Each structure stands twice: as structure tokens, then as C-alpha cells.
Amino acid sequence: MAVVWVCFKCLEEFDPHKAEFCDTCGWAKCPYCDACLCSLSRDEKRVAIAMYLSYTNLPDNEKQWWLEKAKVGADGKP
Q1: What is the rounded CA–CA span in Å between residue 72 and residue 17?
Q2: C-beta separation of 45 from 74 below 8 A
Q3: Is 0.85 surpassed by the pTM of this model?
Q4: Nearest-10 Cα torsion for 6, 4, 13, 20
Q5: How would you classify residue 46: left for phi > 0, otherwise alpha for psi between -120 and 50, otherwise beta?
Q6: For residues 71 and 42, what is the distance between their CA atoms, to the nearest angstrom?
Q7: Separation CA 2–CA 42 (nearest Å)
Q8: For the segment 10-26, what is each residue's pLDDT rounded down to a tens digit?
Q9: Whole-number Å distance between alpha carbons of 9 and 36
Q10: Confidence check: pLDDT of 2 > 70
């Protein structure tokens, strides 16, 4: 079964393994609307990261990295 993500902006499905990743936030860019975590409000970023962590089994260090991004905002600002 292939991994499919749904864009939080345009709601189109896409394969994150074939997507480009944002240099700023580290999130996969939607190939349809070019959205990433940078396109979301702070609260929306937290929801996106929480959903991602709920459905993935990441190593502890990578999970912690995403949790820190959610706490301070994906752009690194409090």
C-alpha cells in the first residue's frame, strides 16, 4: 500500500516520496498548490504536525524534532 498524504490547503492527495520538500519548514510541498507548513497559520501547523505524528512511527529523535517545531511554530518563531 502506497503512502498518500492529503494537502491541508487544497485537499488533493499526493505521494510525499515524490514531492519536493521545503527548505524552511521541512514539510513536503503539495505538487498541486505548492503549500507546505509555511502556508499554514501557527495553529494549523500544530494540527498538521499532530496528525502526522499520530499516523507515523518515527524514531524518537525525529519525533522530538517535529514536536519542537510544533511548540515554537514550524518557522522557528514562538
Answers
A1: 26
A2: yes
A3: no
A4: 90
A5: alpha
A6: 9
A7: 29
A8: 999 999 889 999 999 88
A9: 8
A10: yes
Three-class DSSP labels, the chain:
CCCCEECCCCCCEECHHHCCECCCCCCECCCCCCCCHHHCCHHHHHHHHHHHHHHCCCCHHHHHHHHHHHHHCCCCCC
The pLDDT assigned to 13 comes to 96
The candidate with the shortest Cα–Cα distance to 7, out of 30, 27, 34, is: 30
> Worst-scoring range by mean pLDDT, 37-41, 62-66, 70-74?
70-74
Per the structure block, which three cell numbers stand in for 51? 496528525
Question: In the block, which residue shows the cell 525525529?
Answer: 62
Cell for 45? 501547523
Cβ contacts of residue 72 below 8 Å, gap of 6+?
78
Query: Residue 25 is placed in which grid cell?
Result: 519548514
Measured between alpha carbons, how far is 58 from 8 in angstroms, rounded to an integer? 21
